[in-house]
């Protein structure tokens, strides 16, 4: 009987269009892309595993670990395909998730559209009982009323329950007691906000526990089904999930807290880009991940992606903070727009070309897939422009129909604007590229950065097709397309540490700071975070401590990194100095001259991760040997506004130091890299492609 090997690892990423599989067999990578199966998502994983183990010449039983990320939870929230969920909350707070906050993201829009709450008003129940802001019980919990609510839920065909009480982050006793009472009469999962998101701000916390409960039955069923079917095919290895903060957690934890999986796939991509940045010693990087359904842009500084404690799902206004559904969990911070290869192109009422957010996905897919799709997608435009080889897409697994793409583009867009197919396709690609460029600019400005100061790392099935043009728009001179770019997120899963971030809100002013109490709180958080990590790691664990602080009276706080050591008698002075230094770094200067202005800590964070081995360092090379492409084809060139002769080069034929002068297309199994007229491509020592702007001093 073949036994599993710890040095054979597999990453599986379910996206909206493709499911990506990456298999690392003792340092050799095997990968594939298969169309996502919406009816049975695990089937695409099994199909992909069959392909890569055949290529590697191993059996499923030899796989040592499987690391999985998925957009299923995100899609369930966006498409409202979760369980019927009941919300039980404190009397007087029934409408918090509908009233939201007083912030208006579009100040003068009289027709402001907000996402509807996940749970309709008739499915929200209130109960008497009150915890104060300091964690003290102000009013006892009405347990008799909870018994009656449990009976109503049992008779109401509900699939899940969310419990969110006022100030439960300060004292979870009422939520825990309510869960015990309900569990005696109900056999459905019950989520409490004190465990899902123990942070201040009721709207965000209530919405997060509702989201967790809403997707929990579906995700638990999927993960159980996946494990069963993997065992049936002989893969007896442990399965871990990548969470939105970029670490790994057990399947059991993921089943209980599936909201942590929202954005898990994009998190893998950011980890992949951070690993590339570390490999080449690049401190300022913007990662660009474009798949079949969405495009994601993330800033990476000092070899680590930026992180946040909250983000939004399903924004009704593309670039407007506050227009989406807030999810209050640790997350890698990025901006995401509906601009993938499957995004639909259309013409609005003003006669402008628009793209997304609606996607053709894998079913029916773009028109060129020949799977029933009739509407034009970005992939159709790329095909008409000559960027894609219709006979060699996805390694030849999918034959593309150029005529179908032209018909769809002309019917839905070109004829309305009196344009031919080529001009229409160029217009579609220009719009999607400009949308992505705007998203990158907005993300950089929101973080106080200049986007052109960064090197770009492009990956995902569609990103290398658009990366050079995006760099032209953003003024970026260099872009790396790594090996395995087409399945970058899945490879990123294999680079992810076992990690978990535990949070707790406890409003504390420095004038009332008590080191023993805070040390005890941090010890509990550290034990919780390390407990999750120990489920999958046996080596050394490091902890990052962060205090989220503000001046009293401010609405939001800033992160202040702290040393992993107990607080002593000098804690207040140290915290004040660290906060003012961080405040000055964020805003240019600290606030001075106001006597008695208090500083307070709102939330504590402990992030535990296992220590990963150091990566081998490489130096970027500009290349010496010029490669002359043996074949060519006509590709539309943005610089001239007409088709030009592009050299076609197989990536596997190139060696380190080879230089390919643009215009050219470098093709591989999972993607193609378009080298526009203004760029050259240089192969690096690790096989990555470096796009370098001609004449730049980089």
Written overview of the protein:
It is a single chain. By secondary structure, the protein is of the alpha/beta class. Among the domains are: 8-77 and 220-240, ATPase, nucleotide binding domain (Nucleotidyltransferase, domain 5); 79-214, no CATH class; 499-610, Dna Ligase, domain 1 (2-Layer Sandwich); 625-693, no CATH class. The protein contains 16 helices and 36 strands. Helix 10 (378-384) packs across helix 12 (421-446), helix 11 packs across helix 12 (421-446) and helix 12 (421-446) packs across helix 13 (463-474). The model has no long low-confidence stretch (mean pLDDT 89).
Please describe the structure with a list of short key phrases separated by commas or semicolons.
698 residues; alpha/beta; Nucleotidyltransferase, domain 5; Dna Ligase, domain 1; 6-stranded mixed sheet; 16 helices; 31% helix
Structure summary:
The chain has 698 residues and is of the alpha/beta class.
Helix content: 25-40%
Gyration radius over CA = 26 Å
Task: Look at the structure and give the mean pLDDT.
Answer: 89
Distance between the first and last residues' Cα: 55 Å
Total number of strands: 36
Sum up the overall morphology in one term: globular
Strand content: 25-35%
Low-confidence stretches: none
Structural class, judged by helices and strands? alpha/beta
Please give the count of helices.
16
Major sheet size, sense and barrel closure = 10 strands, mixed
